[in-house]
Amino acid sequence: MLKVKNVSAGYEHIPVLFDVSFEIQGGEVVAIVGSNGAGKTTILRTISGILKPMAGEIEFLGERIDNIPAHKIVEKGIAHVPEGRHVFGKMTILDNLLLGAYTLKSQEDIRSVLKEVYDIFPKLKDRENQKAETLSGGEQQMLAIARAMMSKPKLLLVDEMSLGLMPLLVDKVLSILKAISERGVTVLLVEQKVQEALEIADRGYVLQTGRVIAEGTGKALLASERVKRAYLGM
Ligand code: ATP
Q: Where is the ABC transporter domain (predicted)?
């Protein structure tokens, strides 16, 4: 579904990703894990077109997307949940959700996707007329994911959803991502919480200072000595 081929990217001509390659098949949950500053956010920004690669190519469903603008990439079916949530606190939950549906053309489409999103996140329905700022951190994270789901994505990119959440909530949000993938949406998440992310991922990639240094099934990576030593404190 997604092929990232030999991508280098960065800021102001200074690369932070070097020759990064990986692939995602439809229906998978893939995790890219690594420490703070490894370049995880930069990968997601490059896929969603916020940042243009300095070298390499990105293909989505057989078509090159690294040379088209970000809003066109959303229309092709890639939605990005940014780090830090960025929900609009003064707006209601429903209005936050409707903002995510701007690519949909008909009211009927919007109603049906809203119903589906409320099936996944029933608490948001109960509170749809409340301001988003009344939600807790974990609920705001759910809202950010729900808003991205409103564009009916085929591929959902999720940046560091565990940030600032209690362990119990991290598990809860991760299990929601698994449920989303079971509904046919492919998920790419990037995480500093290496253990938790690899536990739910079908496959993972380890990113260190802008380079992919290991890949494998979530299980295999969790069992690898290198990952255990470097990220799991064993
Ligand atoms: P984090 O968990 O902190 O987000 P990360 O793995 O997602 O870490 P990135 O945010 O992709 O890492 O950052 C990779 C490198 O790029 C870091 O050295 C960072 O300082 C640098 N960087 C990130 N954003 C910018 C920017 N807007 N301008 C310049 N350098 C940046």
A: 2-234
